[in-house]
Amino acid sequence: MTPTPAPLLTVRDLRVVIGGRHILHGVDLEVAASGTTALLGRNGAGKTTTVRGILGLVPRTGSVLLAGEETVRLTTYALVRKGIGYAPEDRGVFAALTVAENLRLAERPGAGEPAYDLVYELFPELKLRARQAAGTLSGGQQQMVAIARTLLNGNRLIIADEPTKGLAPKVVTEVAQVLERAAEAVPVLLVEQNLAVVRRLARHCVVLADGRTAHRGPAADLLADAEAARRLLGVGSTGRPTAGAPVRTAARPAARTTEADA
Ligand SMILES: Nc1ncnc2c1ncn2[C@@H]1O[C@H](COP(=O)(O)OP(=O)(O)OP(=O)(O)O)[C@@H](O)[C@H]1O
Fold it and tell me: From the CB of 22, is ligand 1 less than 6 Å away?
């Protein structure tokens, strides 16, 4: 039997306190050395904070091992240089700059020749729109710029935070296709609420609840278990939020998890 490869990223007891408020109470997760690992959970469970904790964008304690090397005390800048590419939830494109300028800004000195061939093979549209101001792109096209930037520098890991959020069904499918191909080249940690996308892309999943790890395992097993999906994600077998899903008390929307569109 072939031994299972060691995880690329191992997070242990990740804790985040912001403004005196405990947001993460000890998250444990692994990102597999290949393919896509999905980070799931209801709204407000702590997914984005976990990603930001891994990247050092918020003060954190615990352990974050990248290929066995402890990174929890590194700055975000140092972590990026170690080969973590990040496509944030808000996409982070520079609206006034062109597509080509956005990509050029992402080039990292010392990371070797930027992989424009790969980027333009995956995103031919970005080549056609190289001179267009990024602020005038559609949401899906901006998302492609955000993902393309993570692929330029031969990164070892890509973290994509809700890349399909707010996109039209057809565009969700396009972004999912691109992520699928990207994950053939680089392991991906994918924060995602669209369960059809998770079903299509993710081999493994980690579910957070209230700032803690509530479940880890094969994504297909969780999605096949309607009771577990309902309990952990607040969705029924249709993938729609169930009557028992928690009512949001904060200004956030109700759990948006859906099975539609991929
Ligand atoms: N800077 C902050 N200051 C105070 N509270 C915060 C801050 N960032 C996050 N939180 C709180 O921490 C909790 C987790 O937020 P987080 O954005 O990590 O959740 P999430 O699982 O990504 O949610 P969603 O799916 O809705 O994006 C929420 O209750 C949120 O309001």
Answer: no
pLDDT at 244: 39
Atom 13 (ligand 1) nearest CA: 44
Res. 106: pLDDT tops 50: yes
| Burial of residue 230, with CB atoms counted within 10 A of its CB: 0-12 exposed, 13-18 middle, 19 or more buried | middle
The answer to whether 239 and 195 are in contact (CB under 8 A) is yes
> Which is the CATH superfamily of the domain at 9-91+155-175+185-233?
P-loop containing nucleotide triphosphate hydrolases (3.40.50.300)
40: which 2 tokens?
Answer: 């799931």
CA of 40 to the centre of ligand 1 (A): 13
Structure confidence by residue, pLDDT tens digits, 199-255: 999 999 999 999 999 999 999 999 999 899 889 998 754 454 444 344 333 334 444
